[in-house]
Design a protein that fits this description.
The protein is 43% helix and 15% strand. With 334 residues, the chain is an alpha/beta fold.
């Protein structure tokens, strides 16, 4: 049995997808989400018809007690709490996989689950909720998981479900690569428009390019490797984002196909009135800068704006307005 602990959009979609391959899946999550699964869980891809998956839904951590494999998909701020709950019920030697944003969650789980084998993994794609119990993968990409013998149950389940999974020996670099990409979460949340519409506008892309370039400079100074997760090397991405709209529009479907309705998970959190993961995304960049005795003004400004949005602040910035908030010099758009 595979348990998904903290099943929100990502957890429900991954769990449902694995169930279509024959895996025995138990989802553990909030009552509101689990209650929507009484008539089944529907999952769909970027292309292809929706499929109904058979899963067991529960709100109790004890439902994971019999799992040989546990996928943790809680928000970063709830990782320590999740580890405490799972430590009470999981047997010695259980395999736990962190399918979370950020770069520290696997270590937090290892500290809280000393009797378990914890593996880092990464989800590159976006998932949106399309209705009661219906979840849609809205962008492309293959899962990555730490290359270890304990990864084999996850590898087997993904293969049976036709879900691409890549073993990686450089998971810290993969996690930093994902974090650099996820710096767009804040910009999308502050723009208040779908990802595709946001990325279609050069003014928003300039904000993202500035945040990424700042982060990449700091990572280089700290001698931290950043993995390439798309066909574009990380160092090239800020330059790619600056190209004219008409050219970028032709490249985006090739680099990262995105559903027209996709939005960032940070937008979802703000919409639901939940705390965001800003401290685990832009906040990590600011922390790294402080450790190096440097500043990260672009990412620090985004932290400030998202924290304001969490308490009712603006979530409808135009690209030019956001650029001014980040103190970016103006350029002609195209």
């Amino acid at each position: 049995m595979i348990a998904v602990f903290g099943a929100g959009a990502i957890g429900c979609w991954v769990g449902g997808k694995l169930a279509t391959g024959g895996a025995d899946i138990t989802l553990v999550g909030r009552a509101r989400i689990m209650g929507e699964l009484a008539d089944g869980l529907v999952v769909s891809e970027l292309a292809g018809a929706p499929v109904t998956a058979r899963v067991t839904a529960s709100t109790e951590a004890s439902a994971a007690a019999a799992a040989e494999l546990v996928l943790v998909t809680v928000k970063s701020a709830q990782t320590a709490e999740a580890a405490t709950a799972l430590d009470r019920v999981l047997p010695d030697g259980a395999i736990v996989v962190s399918l979370q944003n950020g770069v520290r969650n696997a270590d937090v789980l290892r500290a809280g689950l000393p009797r378990c084998r914890v593996l880092a993994a990464m989800v590159p794609f976006n998932v949106i909720r399309r209705g009661l119990g219906a979840y849609h993968r809205a962008s492309a990409g293959a899962l990555r998981i730490e290359d270890a013998p304990a990864a084999q149950p996850m590898v087997d389940a993904c293969r049976a479900a036709g879900l691409a999974l890549e073993r990686r020996a450089d998971m810290p670099a993969v996690q930093w690569g994902k974090l650099v990409m996820n710096l767009n979460n804040a910009i999308n949340a502050l723009a208040g428009v779908p990802l595709a519409a946001e990325l279609a506008q050069r003014a928003y892309r300039r904000c993202l390019a500035a945040a990424q370039a700042e982060a990449l400079d700091l990572l280089a100074a700290a001698r931290i490797d950043v993995a390439r997760l798309t066909m574009i090397p990380p160092r090239w991405m800020p330059k790619l984002l600056a190209i004219p709209d008409r050219v970028f529009a032709r490249l985006l479907p090739v680099v990262v196909p995105i559903d027209a309705h996709a939005r960032s998970s940070m937008w979802d959190d703000l919409e639901a009135g939940r705390p965001t993961e800003i401290d685990h995304l832009q906040g990590e960049v600011v922390t790294l800068a402080e450790r190096l005795g440097r500043a990260a003004p672009i990412n620090a400004a985004l932290v400030r704006l998202v924290r304001a949005a969490e308490t009712g602040g603006r979530r409808d910035y135009s690209g030019d307005e956001l650029a001014r908030e980040l103190a970016l010099t103006s350029t002609a758009s195209a």
